[in-house]
Amino acid sequence: MTAQSLTLVSQSACFGGTVSFYRHVSSACNHEMKFSVYIPPQAKLAPVPVLYFLSGLTCTEENFMVKAGAQRFAAQYKVMLVVPDTSPRNTGIAEEEDDWTFGTGAGFYVDATQAPWNDHYKMYRYVTEELPALIAEHFPARSDRQGILGHSMGGHGALVCALRNPDRYLSVSAFAPIVAPTRSPWGQQIFTRYLGNDPSLWRNYDATELVRTHPFKHPILIDQGTTDSFLEQQLMPEVFQQACAQVGQPLTLRMQTGYDHSYYFIATFIEDHIRHHAKILREF
Amino acid sequence: MTAQSLTLVSQSACFGGTVSFYRHVSSACNHEMKFSVYIPPQAKLAPVPVLYFLSGLTCTEENFMVKAGAQRFAAQYKVMLVVPDTSPRNTGIAEEEDDWTFGTGAGFYVDATQAPWNDHYKMYRYVTEELPALIAEHFPARSDRQGILGHSMGGHGALVCALRNPDRYLSVSAFAPIVAPTRSPWGQQIFTRYLGNDPSLWRNYDATELVRTHPFKHPILIDQGTTDSFLEQQLMPEVFQQACAQVGQPLTLRMQTGYDHSYYFIATFIEDHIRHHAKILREF
Fold first, then answer.
1. Are B13 and A267 a contacting pair at CB < 8 A?
2. What is the pTM of this model?
3. Is B12 in contact with A262 (Cβ distance < 8 A)?
């Protein structure tokens, strides 16, 4: 296997470590992709566990790094943070910019099977295979100690990636995740266009469906704001909670009174999430 | 005095308190102005000290609130945060958008005396008089416990506001401030256009000049990254350090190895700054 090349776009010191932004040619997406990495100071001495953060609709690889205040706790709990962009961009697909819930900034962490999206929109493979291999190759990462978390569309992505690959991700958590996309308006519209008309083919990307047959060893942590404007129609955490209860999947669902869907919500509870992951990743 | 009206633009829960964005008609600037406020949870019980943060070039009232991670410590140390925009916007002045270091996003916290800027660019009066009065009127703020800090252009602003009004601001600190604008290319260009050609009229807006004749009771805290690309030509902290030493002004200047001019730098050290202010504001 030849080394894949990364291009460093920018780098800043942060909490004794470094925040770096990279671009590279992705084989999964057959296109340029971007991601950011926070390397905590302890990684100078020995490889550290890795936490992948999957962002929500319209986000890039920058939002979480600049808004969540996560580096403070990544440094404290000695974990690396990796944040991929939410889709390929400027692929030349005519409709990619038409809808903020689809195409650019809205890859939904699936491998598209429908034209024209199936040429480039392979975010599931990118996130679960190509990116971890790249991180293992280029950074002081413990590939046997990986966790994943995300927000909204990225919360859906994190739950799906973890449930389908419990050997690859030891810990999972989410902020305001889309937990049942096959039942939500966003999910139905998006899955039809990326995956086709047959809903049975969507189930592999629906956390509520997956959890019934894919037990996850460690408890799942979810925070959800009660004044989140997407809560009732798109997010439906109670549906996931019910499925977890039915199969005995440990879940901590925290309904946070008065919190909305913004990064102010994420910043408030990010410490708890990083601690949740670090505890599992270090004790495993 | 009639109550000035504020329009709430948006509000989010954050660390048990609220981040709110407001717009209002400013009498100082004779134009609409915007600011953001973080109210910590303790303010529900009793008024709290207030910390004003003045932002750098190109910033709005949002950057600090969303990027610095300051609310965590404002809640912990029980202080309110107030962040004004960096200039009036859309005033109709033809050249206001031409230069990122002047006009829109670059009010430099001075009261302009030169046309056409003197119609609206009265940021010094806005920040030191109108905004504190507005905060006192509308929020649970202790107006007798105010501190001020800022970044870059806003670090200059914070030092100038505090040195000229030590009765109004009990504590001051800065990240990568422009400490000697009358000697820096940015300051010289900007002051000529806002204040006119006579450099003697610029001294009231130059922290290094002011500190020689305006002692500040409590120590001044400054953090400066060593790889900041503006360090040598525009910032020159050693010039301020020398002036402080000459007059016996207590100053803690921390040169932070490897840090740049970004919010990753600010986020890393914001806890120290809020603690610095809270200690003075609570013990005074």
1. no
2. 0.95
3. yes
